[in-house]
Write a structure and sequence with these properties.
The complex is a heterodimer of chains A (232) and B (511). By secondary structure, chain A is α/β, with parallel strands linked by helices. In chain A, 34% of the residues lie in helices and 22% in strands. In chain A, α2 links the parallel β4 and β5. Chain A is globular. Chain B has 21 helices and 16 strands. In chain B, the strands form five sheets. A six-stranded mixed β-sheet of chain B has the order 3-4-5-6-14-13. Chain B has a four-stranded mixed β-sheet with strand order 1-10-11-12. At the A-B interface, loops of A face α17, α18 and α19 of B. Bound molecules: iron/sulfur cluster. Iron/sulfur cluster binds next to loops of chain A.
C-alpha cells in the first residue's frame, strides 16, 4: 500500500485550458484500474513504473503556488485519479483549508471506477468530477476497458445526486461505440438522471494509442456533427 | 534632409492616397528646417540610431500625443467650433466627429477618441436598443472610414454598461481596424461577464487590450487613457514627444562588462536621450506657439500642466544578452534567472535615473518624464520591442508572464507584451479571464493577446488585416503600410510561438 502523503505522479501541467473550467493546474497521477484499448496515455496505466515521480502533498502545493494567481483551480487526472484517493483527499483538504489557496476549485477527472465510499470521503473537498463513460452497454464496456461499468454507472448516479458531477465525457470511437442506437440509449439514460447534465463528446484520435486501436479510424467532422446532433 | 527627388517621388507615389501624400509632403517640408539644437554627441548618437526621435520631424509644432477633454467640451460646447453643449445622443455623436476632425496630432489623425462608453452613457436614457444599435453603428463605421489610422484609440470604463456591450457587439459584427480599444479592468468593478464579452471580441477581431486600471490610476490619477499604442497619459494633457534609447546599441558601445555599463555607458546615453527630449520640448512650447494659439488650449480642453514627455527604451533583451556574454555567462533573457535579474536591474536603473532628471514643462509628472517601454517601429531589425522577449524564443506562458510582468510597474506611460493564444482559448474563454486577472494581480499593466486564427494581426498595439496586406499596395489605412514593413522585416508571418514584432512609426509614412 502506498503511503497517503506520497503519490506516484505521471506528470504535471502548470497551465491547462482543457481540464475543466478556466485555467487549471493539473496533476496526472500514475496508475489506472482500467485497461482501455483506446487509451491515449497507456504508459500511465501501471501504478509502478520508473518513469513516474514520487511527490508529497507539500511538493504538489509548492507547484500550485507557482501557478498562482493565474489559475481557477486544480484538477487531478490520470491514469485514474481515484486509485490514489487518499493522496487526493489529503491534497484537497490542504487546498480547501489554507487561506493562500482561497477561491481555488478542486476537480477530479475520473473513469468513475471508484466505490461510493471514496466519493463520500472526497466530496466535501471536491467541487466537481469530470467522469468518462466508455460505453453504456456492459458487454461493450468490458470489451473496451477490460472491466464492467456497474461501478461507473453508480458513480454517475451518486455524484449527480450530490451535485458534484460537473460533466460526463463520451469518448466515441467510430465502429466501436458510436452507433445511433448506442448514442441515443446513452443520452436517454444520462438525461433520465438529470435533464441538465453536461455531456461532452470527445472524438477518438489515434495519437498515443496502442497498436490495436491504431487501426481504428479517427472520428471525422461528419461523425462529430452526428454525435452532437444525437446527444444534444 | 529632404531633396527635391523625395518630394517628387511622394507627389507621384501611387501607393499613397491623396491625404497620405499631403501628410508626407508636410513632413518633408518640416524636415527642410534645422532640428532643435543639441550638442554634437547627441547628433552623433542620433545618427547612429543609439537614440531615436521616432522621425517626429525637425520642428515640433504640435505635441506627439494629445488627449482633449471630450467630456468638458460635450458639456460646455465650443466657441471655436461654434457648437452648443450636446443635448442628446445624436448631438454627442456629431460633436465628437467634429472634434476629431479638428484635433491635431503627429499622425494627422486623433490618437484618442475619448472613453466612449463613459462619454455617451449620459445620452442613452430613453433610447431603444434598436436606435442605439443603428446610431452607434453609423458612428462606428464613420470612425473607421474618416480616421483610417489604427493608432486612433478609444477606452472603455471598468463597469459593464449598455454602451460598452453594444460596442463589443458592433466590433464583432463590423471587424474594423479602427478604433483601437483598451478596456480598463478593475479587480472588483469589472465583472467576469464583461471580460468574457471582451475576450470573445478579441477572438473575432483582435480587440480590445486589457489595462490594469488600479495601477494606471495610482500612477496617473483617475483621468487617464491609453492612446495610440500602449501610451498611457493624462486626459486633458498628453506627451510633447517620444524619444527612445536603443539598449542593444547602447550595450554594443560598452566593452567593459556590466559594471562599466552602469557606471558610464548607460548614463551617458540616457543623458543624450534626455537632451534630445529637452530640446524638442523647448521648441514645441517656446517657439512653435502651440500652447498660445491652439483652440483646444484656449478652451481649456488641453492644459500644458498635464503634459509630460515619454522617455522610451527598447532592445532590453539584446542588451541583456550582450552584457551577459561580456561577463562570460551564456544565460539569455527569458531563460535565465541571472539574465532576467540583470534586465530588471537595467530597467530599475533607468527608472531611477529618469525620475531624477528634471525636464522643462513637465508638470504632468511633477517635472519629470514618464518612462515608456517602446514597442518598436518597422525599421527595428534584430532588436526586440521594449522589454519583450524576442519572437520565437518565448518560454511557456507562465514563465513568459513572470519574466515580463516584473517590469510593468516601472513604466507609467505604457509597456506591452503581446501573447498569442491558440484555439483552445476559444473553447475555454474563462481560462483567458483567469490569466488576465492573474496577470494584473501579479503586476502587469497592459495585457494584449492575439488569436492566431482570425484575420487580424497585431503588429505592435495596432491591428492590420491579413487580407489588407494581401491587397497591398492600395490599402486605405496608413498603418497598414507600417504593418507591411513589419511583416517583411520581422517575419511576423513566420512566427510560430506567441507573438508579433511591432512598429509604431516609420520614416516612410508620417506617423
Ligand atoms: S481509464 Fe483512462 S487512463 Fe485508464 S486506461 Fe482508460 S483511457 Fe487510459
Amino acid at each position: 500500500m502506498l503511503k497517503a502523503h506520497q503519490a506516484q505522479v505521471a506528470s504535471t501541467i502548470k497551465f491547462s485550458w482543457v481540464d475543466g473550467p478556466g485555467n487549471r493546474y493539473v496533476l496526472f497521477l500514475q496508475g489506472c484500474n482500467f485497461n482501455c484499448l483506446a487509451c491515449h496515455n497507456p504508459q500511465t496505466i501501471p501504478l509502478r513504473t520508473p518513469r513516474a515521480n514520487e511527490m508529497t502533498v507539500q511538493e504538489v502545493l509548492e507547484e500550485i503556488r507557482g501557478s498562482m494567481p493565474y489559475i481557477s483551480g486544480v484538477t487531478v487526472s490520470g491514469g485514474e485519479a481515484t486509485v490514489q484517493h487518499e493522496f487526493v483527499l489529503d491534497l484537497f483538504k490542504e487546498i480547501k483549508s489554507r487561506k493562500e489557496f482561497k477561491g481555488l476549485t478542486t476537480f477530479i477527472d475520473s473513469n468513475g471506477n471508484a466505490p461510493q465510499e471514496v466519493w463520500i470521503q472526497l466530496a466535501p473537498f471536491t467541487d466537481g468530477v469530470m467522469l468518462d463513460l466508455k460505453a453504456l452497454d456492459d458487454a461493450k464496456h468490458i470489451e473496451l476497458t477490460g472491466n464492467s461499468n456497474v461501478v461507473v454507472l453508480d458513480s454517475i448516479r451518486y455524484l449527480d445526486s450530490i451535485a458534484k458531477l460537473y460533466e460526463v465525457r463520451l469518448l466515441l470511437v467510430p465502429g466501436q461505440n458510436d452507433s445511433d442506437r448506442e448514442l441515443i440509449d446513452t443520452a436517454v439514460w444520462l438525461r433520465g438522471i438529470n435533464p441538465e447534465m453536461r455531456i461532452k463528446i470527445n472524438a477518438f484520435k489515434t495519437h498515443g494509442v496502442r497498436a490495436l486501436a491504431r487501426q481504428w479510424p479517427e472520428a471525422s467532422d461528419a461523425d462529430l456533427a452526428r454525435y452532437k446532433d444525437i446527444v444534444n | 534632409m529632404t531633396s527635391l527627388e523625395n518630394i517628387r517621388s511622394t507627389v507621384n507615389d501611387s501607393k499613397f492616397t491623396y491625404r497620405q501624400r499631403i501628410a508626407q509632403l508636410a513632413n518633408l517640408a518640416e524636415n527642410l528646417l534645422d532640428p532643435p539644437p543639441v550638442r554634437k554627441q547627441c547628433t552623433d548618437a542620433l545618427e547612429k540610431r543609439i537614440i531615436c526621435d521616432m522621425f517626429e520631424g525637425n520642428a515640433p509644432y504640435r505635441p506627439r500625443y494629445l488627449l482633449p477633454d471630450y467630456k468638458k467640451v460635450l458639456d460646455n460646447g465650443s466657441v471655436f467650433l461654434e457648437l452648443p453643449a450636446a443635448k442628446d445622443f445624436d448631438d454627442a455623436l456629431a460633436f465628437l466627429l467634429i472634434m476629431y476632425s479638428a484635433t491635431p496630432s503627429i499622425t494627422g489623425y486623433p490618437v484618442y477618441f475619448g472613453d466612449l462608453d463613459t462619454l455617451l452613457l449620459p445620452y442613452v436614457d430613453g433610447l431603444s436598443d434598436e436606435d442605439l444599435y443603428a446610431k452607434l453603428k453609423r458612428f462606428w463605421i464613420s470612425l473607421d472610414r474618416m480616421f483610417p489610422d489604427a493608432f486612433a484609440h478609444t477606452n472603455l470604463s471598468p463597469v459593464y454598461n449598455r454602451v460598452s456591450q453594444m460596442i463589443f457587439k458592433l466590433e464583432r459584427e463590423l471587424l474594423q481596424v479602427v478604433p483601437n480599444i483598451s478596456l480598463k479592468v478593475d479587480p472588483v468593478l469589472t465583472s467576469d461577464e464583461y471580460i468574457l464579452d471582451a475576450v470573445t471580441t478579441v477572438f473575432a477581431c483582435g480587440k480590445p487590450h486589457f489595462i490594469n486600471d488600479v495601477m494606471m490610476q495610482s500612477d496617473l490619477g483617475s483621468q487617464y487613457a491609453a492612446v495610440s499604442c500602449y501610451n498611457s497619459l493624462k486626459i486633458g494633457g498628453g506627451s510633447h514627444t517620444l524619444v527612445r534609447i536603443n539598449l542593444k546599441k547602447t550595450a554594443e558601445e560598452c566593452n567593459g562588462g556590466v559594471e562599466k555599463f552602469f557606471e558610464t555607458t548607460l548614463p551617458f546615453y540616457l543623458d543624450l536621450t534626455a537632451e534630445l527630449m529637452e530640446s524638442r520640448i523647448l521648441y514645441l512650447v517656446e517657439e512653435s506657439g502651440f500652447f498660445e494659439s491652439n483652440w483646444l488650449v484656449n478652451e481649456g480642453l488641453l492644459d500644458l500642466e498635464k503634459f509630460s514627455p515619454m522617455f522610451g527604451l527598447f532592445g532590453l533583451a539584446e542588451c541583456v544578452n550582450i552584457l551577459m556574454e561580456q561577463e562570460g555567462d551564456s544565460g539569455t533573457y527569458g531563460h535565465s534567472i541571472a539574465a532576467d535579474d540583470l534586465g530588471y536591474r537595467i530597467t530599475s536603473f533607468i527608472a531611477d535615473w529618469v525620475s531624477h532628471r528634471k525636464m522643462p514643462y513637465c508638470d504632468g509628472n511633477d517635472g519629470y518624464a514618464f518612462l515608456h517601454s517602446q514597442s518598436g517601429i518597422d525599421l527595428d531589425l534584430d532588436v526586440t520591442a521594449g522589454t519583450r522577449i524576442p519572437i520565437g524564443t518565448e518560454p511557456p506562458l507562465i514563465d513568459h508572464l513572470r519574466t515580463v510582468s516584473r517590469h510593468h510597474h516601472l513604466f507609467a506611460s505604457g509597456i506591452s507584451d503581446v501573447l498569442s493564444f491558440d484555439e483552445t482559448a476559444v473553447k475555454n474563454p474563462q481560462a483567458v479571464v483567469d490569466v488576465i486577472r492573474g496577470a494584473f494581480k501579479s503586476g502587469m499593466r497592459d495585457f494584449t493577446f492575439n488569436l492566431d486564427s482570425n484575420d487580424f494581426i497585431r503588429i505592435t498595439g495596432y491591428l492590420v488585416r491579413k487580407s489588407d496586406l494581401a491587397k497591398m499596395p492600395s490599402a486605405r489605412h496608413s498603418s497598414t503600410f507600417l504593418g507591411a514593413g513589419s511583416v517583411a522585416d520581422s517575419h511576423v508571418n513566420r512566427r510560430n510561438v506567441k507573438r508579433v514584432m511591432s512598429a509604431e512609426s516609420s520614416p516612410s509614412t508620417s506617423s
